[in-house]
Amino acid sequence: MRIGVLTSGGDCPGLNAVIRSVVHRAVVDHGDEVIGFHDGWKGLLECDYRKLDLDAVGGILARGGTILGSSRVQPAHLRDGVERAKGHVTDLGLDAIIPIGGEGTLKAANLLSEAGLPIVGVPKTIDNDIASTDVTFGFDTAVGVATEALDRLKTTAESHQRVLIVEVMGRHTGWIALHSGMAAGAHAIVVPERPFDIAELTEVVGRRFSDGKKFAIVVVAEGAKPREGSMEFNQGKTDIYGHERFAGVATQLSGELEQRLGKEARPVILGHVQRGGTPTAYDRVLATRFGWHAVEAAHRGEFGMMTALRGTDITMVPLAAAVETLKTVPAERYAEAQVVL
Ligand code: F6P
């Protein structure tokens, strides 16, 4: 079998573990040939790739990022993108393509699958918002980074008696905010699923000070927005690929809370540090299992499917169903955290 693998969209700790696992299972156990496309779909569209053998994946299990590079380019961005991809798959004699990516990548994978290409998707995102899988690798690492940052921020917030508003990633969902906020004992958590009321947030933080506490930590997901009419808010813009570029909710909240509370407030934007560096053991294991099962699915001819974690098992789910909706934080989870606005 000849398999093409690519990593597309925002990078994520664990991508290299999937690539390594695909190569180990395919080359060593099945005697397959594996090629890796550079920079995501761009590599497939431009026929830019390299052969991946055991040497190529040596020592990458614990390495962050992706040895193949990534981009947000998608076949749909080109008028002849789908046809071009199909042509290259035929020319290269590929029997299977394993794209590893998040929401946008999997939608592109589904499009190509519907156009007849032999696709087995592997979900990845630190945001943990892919439906049909309980967890995506990268999430555990990102939550760990954010939690460590929050623990550290508490001590400086306390020394200066400040309110720190810490912005974590999460475009559409508040999984990182919820988990890191719970793990670090944040005093308020603001998620995109639930537009916040600035008066309510002011009251929650203010109550802490009137109870005699000297500081407060608010965790906010980057995609969180105020309730209609709650406060003036700059909505941000879109980037060249039509992705939402946020205008800094933490910065806007910090200014507003400082004014309303008369307390020093500072925004802290964790940004891409959450995506960088070595994956946790949990993410390495999940990524390795996904890679192994993707190769097996390809050998069974199970295309148009995606690897997924259900409980402790890896199963295959239809790509079409997986990209239909995002996995948002269910309302029951807010109550458990007690501090979600
Ligand atoms: O999709 C993962 C993610 O980390 C989002 O949480 C974040 O909004 C986005 O990627 C940032 O992407 P970029 O690297 O293109 O700025």
UniProtKB/TrEMBL annotation:
Keyword Hydrolase part of the UniProt annotation: no
Pfam families: PFK
Reactions the enzyme catalyzes: beta-D-fructose 6-phosphate + ATP = beta-D-fructose 1,6-bisphosphate + ADP + H(+)
Pathway participation: Carbohydrate degradation; glycolysis; D-glyceraldehyde 3-phosphate and glycerone phosphate from D-glucose: step 3/4
A single BP term in Gene Ontology: canonical glycolysis
SUPFAM superfamilies: Phosphofructokinase
Top EC group: transferase
Cofactor(s), by name: Mg(2+)
Binding site for Mg(2+): 103
Role noted for this protein: Catalyzes the phosphorylation of D-fructose 6-phosphate to fructose 1,6-bisphosphate by ATP, the first committing step of glycolysis.
Protein name: ATP-dependent 6-phosphofructokinase
Species in which this protein is naturally found: Streptomyces pratensis (strain ATCC 33331 / IAF-45CD)
